[in-house]
């Protein structure tokens, strides 16, 4: 297909496609003339993936480039690919807080991770991200023990991750897209659950009368 068709089907302007090509986010098409090229379904799929990661996934182009490079690396193993993706997502969610406070929280979050028995690398970005969350919570006056707060989350997360991996179709791109989209879906459903429960509690409170 020509670039105009790729633009129409991909839902992005031609200028954006040319930018993706210049930035090597999108592989070049097959040259048919000096200034013309043909593109195929793989280019359309890649454009949709980029739009998903930068849109719903809210990832920067730098992070997307890193993830796409890992996808294109035929020798990368699933675990390595996930580590790249996890690093990119954690970088997007970094919390700006006092370094000393993060270091103190890191000791406790490391103990928590080991306590739940997770085999996570010492340099895993999730360790630092979780420590940043704990430090920020404490800065806001939330001083509960890490295990008390996060153990239910850890149990739910492991259950969900196991189900997703069992149902995961083969392919690097599938792992990336499902990980990103399911993470967004879970966050959205959690917020809707809050809205539902608060509305139900308000309704129950409104139904109480003095006897």
What would you note in describing this structure?
With 211 residues, this protein is mainly alpha-helical. The protein has a domain at 94-167. 70% of the residues lie in helices and 3% in strands. The chain has helices at residues 3-10, 14-22, 41-54, 61-72, 78-92, 99-115, 125-139, 146-167, 172-206; strands at 30-33, 36-38. Helix 4 (61-72) packs antiparallel against helix 5 (78-92) and helix 6 (99-115) crosses helix 7 (125-139).
Concise account of the structure shown:
With 211 residues, the protein is mainly alpha-helical.
Instruction: Give me the oligomer status.
Output: single chain
Q: How many strand elements?
A: 2
- Weakly predicted, low-confidence segments: none
Strand order of the largest sheet: 1-2
In terms of DSSP E residues, the strand content is: under 5%
Helix content: 55-70%
Q: Cα-atom Rg, whole angstroms? A: 22 Å
Structural class: mainly alpha
Shape: globular
Q: What is the H/E string?
A: HHEEHHHHHHH
CA distance, first residue to last residue? 75 Å
> Mean pLDDT, nearest integer?
90
Strand count, sense and barrel status of the largest sheet are: 2 strands, antiparallel
Q: Number of helical segments?
A: 9
